């Protein structure tokens, strides 16, 4: 532990620092939480120069007025001074109690701060201010005598940097703060500035003044959706308007932020105006809660403006008031008063006169024409106005309809006394939510899944729907114009727009500490949780837990849902869960996940669910358990052929293991894990990562001098090299590994090494050596005590040997042998039923049918194999199957289908990094392009494929490319005929040497036809 003042090391039990004497501050962890807030930093410019020559007392006197003005400005707008810095301060808005207006409030506080310091009349006192909105860790720090609310995190540094670059009496603001306060405050964009400690220039804005727009106008200017539904609420308001003609009616629209209170109220107000009603509208401002009569002033100004615009008899309703009442209104409206009688009144008497005069004005206006008095956001009303509004709402005036809006935490106590009808607003129903989304995104069915996700994510709260859509559009995830937006890329998480984080956090701040604990446990468990698990993890008494659940259900934060199996709990919408989870500091999260993990481990229901156990072990940072459960989850995914998921869990296991202490057992586990993981990476087509697994394992094995594991690692690298490298490199490495494996006496790795080497020979066009090598591996694998590396069943390796040996015999024209091997492969696939085995068998069967000249049968088999590979994510086989399927279409004369399929095969092979598949698909794509009439393009493609195959050592593919060149070259000229003859002879030479009899025979037959046509052998 270190002293906050001098950073000297101190004992946690000390009360004072032995070096500097400062009282020890102790952080109170239970009060620590993550918050999304706005930070204000302000200081006096060149304060050192101002006080350098002064005595200490005089220095304090010189700066204290500015500091006092700063403190008062912050507190006026609901901020908390978190730290004083001698010549300035740091303040936070939106904590410890969340406030969705934290950014506008901070901006208004900054404006007031600059104004107050300037009004001191000391030209030497000039200030600068920086503002930034972001996530912080907020906590209480206790000393021997007091507690201080402090904040930590990177966000405060950006606010400080903005303060340091601000000019005299200027307020610089980050883009995050500007986005949240835009409309409430006017800004000037200053471009991007380089700030100390930030690698990239940061967009900076300057506040140029407060906006005169009302909150409703700001919201309406941002709105991109039209008003939908609310049929029940509109019917209730229509009924109240009808009853108001006979006697005063008061209606309160009650609902959480974003539910649509203002939208409904203004839609209804416009409807009544169209029916001849007069409108008096005002709103309570969060910026003016401390200003007496600020709300009443707005009501009176609107009332007098409405009376002055009366087309029948424009007038000033104050004319009918007594002199003392007129003075009362002048006091509210900030008009100078010269009435001795007013000056003599006591404060409580002045309040009564103000109330009576205000009621008289409203009564006068309503007596001439049906009048709607709309007052919004009653939860922000100042205390002095609250008393007068209560009196107005209780007036017995026919033709007056008072319509109020408020959040649940702001419902005034006098509502019941004025017999108001309370209309509790709820989220939209699903149909209305979808209608709203269709209006914003468009009616296309392509966005149907996204719309459903947004409905679930936002629980149909209108503001949340709109802001989520706006966030997706601003980020470029949705492109186009409102009403016609297209999804540009997949979405993993919808997230929480910063504009509504404070709205949700404010709701969460209304719950008790015990209710928050229940929410935190449920948030750690996920969108849906079991009451039994929440009970076990929260460790609350049963009666306390039930009270919490009832309150949370009533608040529609965590609701009970019907379930036949157990009492289940579900968050009303995902955003509440995310904000709850993100509000926890890391230590609290880890603690809750550790308790969840312990609860799951002791419950048989969860003990066999490594996915959940791995998740909570990771979040609890219990790395040893995360390794074990991640490995188990990966094995489970492999068993159900979920290869992409297996890759993710293997990565989790590897990363977790690397976070445990370095020991030899840890390193052997790390190597074995990578060897086991290779199949998941291989089957899902992550060839480069597959090779990296081998390289990492090889390095670790060398470091601990483990020869056996080094051979295993080299075997894995050799297998990957067949796909990612050149055949020459693959053959050299493969031969070395086979030799080492045979010397080591490990038959499992020897068998796999022999298979890899046979594949390397095949790719190099050395078909006879390939066939012999596959034969040796197959013989070993057919022994009673057959062995294969861990993570690889012996029958799977045997199937691959049969498949590749069948491939080789097919290329060599030995179809009977190929068919026998293919039957063995198919029998193994039928026995195991594994998708990967079935795909491998289909690949070999289709290739054999192509070799036998039955492209239609080949296409049927290959189409089924391709669908199966795509369904199960067996990506390594996709380019091979697609290429062979394109060849089958080509042989059937389906040239356009062949072109499309071979194009897809080539692109997929490139994405995977499957070099030989890229070449083969290019060769046959060229033949399809030639059949479709583009001879020049076909010649270029084949020439490029032939050169690449020659340079990289794919001699078999080089021969196929040469034959293709002969096929697509028109024999119209002597030069072309020379090219054809040269290509055929080269193809025959390579095919003869490699043993590719069918290709040699096709080339020889074409050469014979050339000679029969008059070309003489050279």
TrEMBL record:
Domain of life, per the record? Bacteria
Identify one Pfam family in the record.
Answer: Guanylate_cyc
Single Gene Ontology BP term?
intracellular signal transduction
Give the SMART domains listed for this entry: CYCc, TPR
- What keywords is this UniProt entry annotated with? ATP-binding, Nucleotide-binding
Output the Gene3D superfamilies linked to this UniProt entry: Nucleotide cyclase, P-loop containing nucleotide triphosphate hydrolases, Tetratricopeptide repeat domain
Q: Which residues form the Guanylate cyclase domain?
A: 38-163
Entry protein name: AAA family ATPase
